[in-house]
Amino acid sequence: MRKNIVFLCFILAGLGLYSPESQAVNCQRASTPLENTICHNSVLQWLDRTMMEIYLLMLTEGDPLKVRQTYLNWRESLRECTSDNCIEQAYYKGISQIVDADLAFNWQGLWWNIEAPNMSGNTIRFSRAAHWSVAVDIRAWAGMNNDEFTAEARIINGVAFVERIEDTNSCKLLMIPRKNGSLQVFSNADWGCNISLPIGVFLDGRYQQAKSDPRPPPSLLSIGIFPTKEIDRKFRNMVGDDYQNFVNTANVFIYEDDLDNIGAQVISMWVRGAANRRVAIIMHRPDGTMWAGRIAPDNSGKLQMHYFSSQGDDQSQMPRTLVNWRVRYLGH
């Protein structure tokens, strides 16, 4: 969501649905008592930015005119607050109103982040729910990086707020039950959670209740490595049973330069927490020619390269791009 905020602002401004009064408070230009109070309280700053994210999200998901009017009415009522506590409670109420939170939500069970990337994920388990609070157990992973956390959430106006996940540096969560049966989670990732969580772990996203991971099995097509089914099919045929190993290595991936200058697209990938031991590369041209390499430990723990090519598996004919990549990890 954060990556698309600027783009959404331009689109919505063109439709007359986004204006200065619907922006997050700019603390460098705070001028009113309300703005200064928000800017001197880190929780209120986070709630203010989260409110803007939610407002933009609901403008695209719900009835935009109704959402805008609800927001403006809430913004007007916010001006009546003269204390930190009043402002904080107002944000919870406003967020609940704009999202039209499910006030009858059953705070129980296991919930999975269905927006987490390949080889990454989060689960939230709720227990010991009471009228005003619920216990939260969190499991999070990104590749080989993983950890587990606990917290106590306060339920305010139908939304659950975690003031600090235990054993973290002020990692906060806002969990919003939706009437479509999902749970939307926002964190203070920029200045709280990212400092404390394992590298690559993000708790934000849409969660679905399930006993096991409800996400469909990933493929190199679904996670964005290949742009078409045809390219994905050709690659499957080329690597055979090793296809799943490439999927399992595509935890993080980037584009690299085609050092052979043959008009090929080059994608390098690796597993977080094992970036020097579980890596892969795919190189393909528009005419269907393909090359691929994967490096992983063998049974003895020694790194071994697996090479594939649509032109044969003779490593002496390996493109310079893959040779340079192999040297990076194997030294030869």
Key phrases:
five-stranded antiparallel sheet; elongated; alpha+beta; 332 residues; 13 strands; 3 domains; eight-stranded antiparallel beta barrel
Architecture overview:
It contains 9 helices and 13 strands. The protein is of the alpha+beta class and 332 residues long. The protein folds into 3 domains: 2-99, no CATH class; 109-209; 229-330, no CATH class. The strands form 2 sheets. Strands 1-2-3-4-5-6-7-8 form an 8-stranded antiparallel β-barrel. Strand 6 and strand 7 form a beta hairpin. Helix 3 packs parallel to helix 5 (84-99). The longest helix is centred in the first third of the chain and has 20 residues, at 42-61. The mean pLDDT is 92.
Order of helices and strands: HHHHHEEEEEEEHEHHEEEEEH
Secondary-structure-based class equals: alpha+beta
The average pLDDT score comes to 92
- Please count the beta strands (DSSP E, at least 2 residues each): 13
Question: Can you give the helix content as a percent range?
Answer: 25-40%
Q: Distance N terminus to C terminus?
A: 42 Å
Helix count equals: 9
Biggest sheet details: 8 strands, antiparallel, barrel
Number of domains: 3
If you compute it from the alpha carbons, what radius of gyration comes out, rounded to the nearest whole angstrom? Answer: 24 Å
Overall form: elongated
| Relative strand content | 25-35%
Low-confidence stretches: none
- Strand sequence of the main sheet, in spatial order? 1-2-3-4-5-6-7-8
